[in-house]
């Protein structure tokens, strides 16, 4: 079980790194668009399309890691108002519901990817990007999110630390050492 949980954490960190790379790429692309419009009086034909793909990819690729590090937005008011046992039950129930929802999202993304891939669908822009490429990135992110939710549920029910709130601080300490 520990091996599975460590593998999920490692793949989640890897995809988080990919998301950071995409954020920087997205920022550079938007700066290039601003420069092109402001100084060259023309727009880059691919900037808005690829920025949209990048933002969707960032959301999906980093969402699994956000579950582990508790950096996602959630309402914990109810969990703080009940007993630890009740909080554990409510959290586990919400986690199971999230697993079901993310599985449905994953199936939909897999269907969209396969449809685009098998039909050779491309975007309706000048660039004509094969839609399967951004869709497979979203699918990978959804799969990772599902595994992170499963790992959280396993950790919660086996009494392990299910949220790594100090992950960023530990990474900084390691980098400084």
TrEMBL record:
Membrane topology: Multi-pass membrane protein
Protein localization: Cell inner membrane
Molecular function as annotated in GO: transmembrane transporter activity
UniProt KW keywords: Cell inner membrane, Cell membrane, Membrane, Transmembrane, Transmembrane helix, Transport
Principal cellular location given in the protein's record: membrane
UniProt-listed InterPro entries: DctQ, TRAP_DctQ
A single GO BP: C4-dicarboxylate transport
UniProt domain Tripartite ATP-independent periplasmic transporters DctQ component: residue ranges: 28-158
Pfam families the record matches: DctQ
Protein known as: TRAP transporter small permease protein
